[in-house]
Amino acid sequence: MEFLSVFLAGATMLGLGMVFAVVLLIASIKLKVEVDPKVEQVQETLPNVDCGACGFAGCASYAKAVVADPKLIGACAPGGSNTSEKIALVLNLQVSEGGAPSRPIIHCRATSKDKTFYASYDGIPTCTATNAQPNVQACKFGCMGYGDCTTACKFDALHIIDGLAVVDYDKCTGCTACAKACPRNLIEMVPFTHENMMVVACSSQESGKDTRQMCKVGCIACKLCTKKSDQFTMNGNNARTDYENYSPNEGTETAIDKCPTGVIVYRGKTAPPPRPAGQKPKPTAKA
Amino acid sequence: MDTLQTLIIGFLSVVIVNNLVFTKFLGICPYLGVSGRIDMAFGMGCAVTFVVTLAGTLTWLIDHLILQKVGLEVLMYVCFILVIAGAVQLVEMYVKKFFPPLYESFGIFLPLITTNCAILGLCLFLNLWEIDSFIEAVVLSFGAGIGFTMAICIMAGIRENLRLADVPDALQGAPITLITAGILSMAFMGFAGMIG
Questions:
Q1: CA nearest A64: which of A87, A39, A35?
Q2: How many domains does chain A have?
Q3: Between B19 and A88, whose confidence is greater?
Q4: Is A33 helix (H, G, I), strand (E, B) or coil?
Q5: What global pTM score does this model have?
Q6: Chain A residues touching residue B72 (CB < 8 angstroms)
Q7: I need a surface site. Which of A113, B86, B125, B147 has the fewest CB within 10 A?
């Protein structure tokens, strides 16, 4: 009798287990989802920081999208050309143009000392709030230094130093969060084809006279740089670098040296320090 | 008519009076873990409702058609766990195949339903309450799932509003959640004794 109940218990469990095993086996065949192994391989090559710069929800969904549509190669801003090449390797494609990783540059170089303030501001300490107050900082185009960009940065790559946002290019992944956060649109994403890039670190559209009154290091729209080198163009009352055909040469070096306010600076991992504010350009040796 | 009345009363009783979360304190981990956002909470509630209905029905059948016939109620626990694990596997495959976005948003929680004590608890309660009709077992299982969904959604709603509240520093996060859960539980004690 005891043996019978042991046998029954065993048989019941075995029977139930068998039934479930068969049901699950059938289900696993019928409901099988084919996962492309390439998706996983692509995801491994991605930085996996889920920054969203590519326009997808995260690295996983970008990986899926890029396998389905290889045209999306290169959308990964933190990865840049290295990642593009690795993805291309996985997908067995040739990438003709990797594209340099884009990094933010800040179109302002004025520290607190260089700026003019009409009033002091004790309100909510964010750039967005400050931007709504007219006439606190004289320059309507300059960095306000309350650090909306540093808050937006997930990688601790932006810091406010002397009232000016400074990018730490060693930590920056190019996720574009700061460019979206700046209420004055001072931050531009630029393809870093060289380690250090020339930047006209001003975005003021005021006339040269007004800019000079408000800021020691503003672009006064003298057009000197555009005459020295074709790398610079005028955009209203503001010079800008032509990043599409970026190639620094002797002309650009002269332009940097000759700039009356020293507003053309290098930005990048090993950028030389900019000319101190207010220092006059070196006198030209006449030939 | 009499059956219908029994079913309605049974359903209300398991949703409100004998709510698994509020009065039996079962299924507390997803109740606290997934109740951060109301849409996630509702998704979890739906998954649990589905699994608990399936598992409750199957376990009632196994209990009455096999175990009680051969007098092996002692195997109840191990059989029920087997059924629940199997049902969760099945649901997971089904959701993965037909609702991939839902599958991704569930993440780890779908497999975790396997070890959700509310489900095993309900299966055992069906036996404990001596539910003899099949249809009543189905309705009660479904009601338990609805009760769980209601509990987790109420909690998620409160927690979403709690984010805007001025909570003392020492009570931030888990403590205030547990206090909320306690007060909610007490509120639902008011229904005790209303239906048998």
A1: A39
A2: 2
A3: B19
A4: coil
A5: 0.57
A6: 5, 8-9, 12
A7: A113
